[in-house]
Prior knowledge:
The chain is of the alpha/beta class. Helices cover 27% and strands 27% of the residues.
Amino acid sequence: MKAAVCERYGPPEVVQIRDVPKPVPADGEVLVKAFATTVNSGDTRVRALRVPRGLGLAMRLKLGLTKPKQPILGFEMAGQVEAVGSAVSRFQPGDRVVASRGFDFGCHAEDVTVAEQGDIATIPEHLSYQDAVALCFGGTTALIFFRLGQLTSGESVLINGASGAVGTMAVQLAKHLGAEVTAVCSGGHASLVSGLGADHVVDYQAEDFTHNGQRYDVIMDAHGNAPYARVKGSLQPGGRFLMVVGDLWQMLAASRQKATISASRNDSSMTADNYRTLMSLAEQGVLKPVIDSVLPFRQIVEAHRRVDGGHKVGSLVLTLVED
Ligand SMILES: NC(=O)c1ccc[n+]([C@@H]2O[C@H](COP(=O)([O-])OP(=O)(O)OC[C@H]3O[C@@H](n4cnc5c(N)ncnc54)[C@H](OP(=O)(O)O)[C@@H]3O)[C@@H](O)[C@H]2O)c1
């Protein structure tokens, strides 16, 4: 099978499409033929080993000291079950699923094995593979942070980085939860986030939201330039700060700050349950996938470049088989 292989840390060009052995499902595993996958900010961070300050050594220990331990990147994919192991009972060949292997990656490939009990969920009939996979990375992140931050109806929330993969899902989920949403993004993306339901939009190129006198019950930083020290004056008493991106020092400080909530993808953000929630919300029309662009799998290097640019909207989808 073809897979995108990344054998050293570096620029987008280190990713190369190669022929590699097709995986064989173990007893409790499902083999999925990939129709669509994404290149997201997590993939490009791993490829470039671009990690928040102070976390370099920890990330090298986790991801690979001098090169990626798992050379096939990719957090998530959508496709069709091709075969199942002898102990699998919940899935059968032909099922349409979204799946992830978490930090074992491996989804930038034509075929992927996933544990039946792992992060795998059925795609509703009327949702395409591309739409389904586009919901996953940002959607799971927004879901887990709002759950941890206990965002409730009637509260005000500001989302910094509102037009990206995490931000576009966060805007929609916050509206769904009944919050009043302020989205921070560039002026060029204001109409996009308004269309997703944002009640107010702050163009970060024209205004600093920390200086406009507004206060919020919840602030989510999904870009990385709005740490607690900068935004604490914009929080209501009892407000919560959702630190989606933070360096080591901010993480250490967070353990002493009651207001700050941090999470990593280890906090089971990519569980089958979250996938089922996202698929169901999309089926009901509550959640709309936001897709920056769709590229064929062979253009994966270009996809990494686009994500590296830091200004994509929503998710960048790669297709392996036409929907
Ligand atoms: N902790 C976790 O579990 C977790 C999970 C997922 C992601 N993350 C992290 O969250 C971050 C966002 O991920 P993503 O996938 O959503 O990234 P993304 O899709 O690349 O989006 C980044 C967004 O940041 C916005 N932005 C750029 N400059 C900005 C500025 N000066 N002020 C405010 N917003 C600005 C961009 O909006 P414009 O184009 O409008 O400028 C863009 O839409 C990444 O650092 C990622 O590593 C963490």
